[in-house]
Amino acid sequence: MATAAEMLHGKVINGWTVIGQLGTYVGMSGGNFSTGYQVTKEGKIAFLKAMDIQNAFVRGIGAMGEAINQYLFERDVLQFCSDARLSGIITLLESGQFDASPQANPMTTIYYLVFEWADGDIRRAIATGGDKASSWKLRVLHKSAVALVQLHSNDIAHQDLKPSNVLEFNAKSDFKLGDLGRCRTKRFVAPTDALDYPGDYSYAPPEYHYGEVPTSFVNGKIGSDAYLLGSLISFLYTGLGALPLTVFNLPQAYQPKAWQGTYRDVLPFLVRAHTDATEQLTNSLPSEARIRAELLEAYFRLCHPDPEQRGHPAARMQSGTPIGLDRYRSIFDRMSRQAEVYERIEAKKASNG
């Protein structure tokens, strides 16, 4: 039986008319106790995310309370980002509660968030539209780095950067990050703060799969975001994230499910496997030698298995050993512009026969 959050089509929520529930596509990752809708208000199209209290309640009253707390946390972080004008983060337009039933009923109370409309995420763009030009991929990396630097400058670590959370805006040729519900921040207490790693565990850096949890905010939280940014490189050019590429090159005895020793002891084998994975990535990258070399270097550094080595080497030697994502922001920007030039030259050659 459909829940209240799944039956909002045609309803008007604080002036927003719900015109359709969002469909799915092959490879789509679903939301957690939420349903997405397209809504319109005064000619403006937006995205409404409705939290599903009833589905949460199936798991118990505790799960319902956790879902509400998660909504409140995400709302507060997104409102902060909107107030701070973080251009790399999806803009929250409105939030609130809506009673989907004529009779007051906690089970039919909808907690909702309304966002600016995006054309989709990059996972969908590739799944439905096929492979993309290298300049497009490099813009994804540049804009993702921009967003992370903005968040980190405000003591927020995303922790769940993955293809389905990078949103595309076709009209502006722009990309922004969404889904901050799993972020870590010094500004707000999160329901997931007790978790070693709050994001999608299948994308987590290797140390977490071996039970190693970095204690510093830089190595643990900012470093995880750096790893996820690097993992976008391999996804964009091979369809796979960094972790499976590394594990594929590990002997069975050193893989996460088999290893019984410490992370420090297995680390040399992980570094060797990561080095092999980086070399194997070569043939999937752009043919332009300079872009290929810089992408390989960025991938190797960002996805380094050692949290203390992860990031830009020049930045890590500075006081406080910062990760240096601002440097990669500039590197990806320059590479995307170079790729656009190469592509225009090739297109002109093709048109001239």
From TrEMBL:
Keyword Nucleus recorded: no
Top-level lineage group: Bacteria
Alphabetized SUPFAM superfamilies for the sequence: Protein kinase-like (PK-like)
Alphabetical keyword list: Kinase, Transferase
UniProt xrefs under Pfam families: Pkinase
Record carries keyword Transferase: yes
Occurrences of domain Protein kinase (ranges): 22-324
GO molecular function: ATP binding; protein serine/threonine kinase activity
Protein name: Protein kinase-like protein
Species the sequence originates in: Pseudoduganella lurida
Species lineage: Bacteria, Pseudomonadati, Pseudomonadota, Betaproteobacteria, Burkholderiales
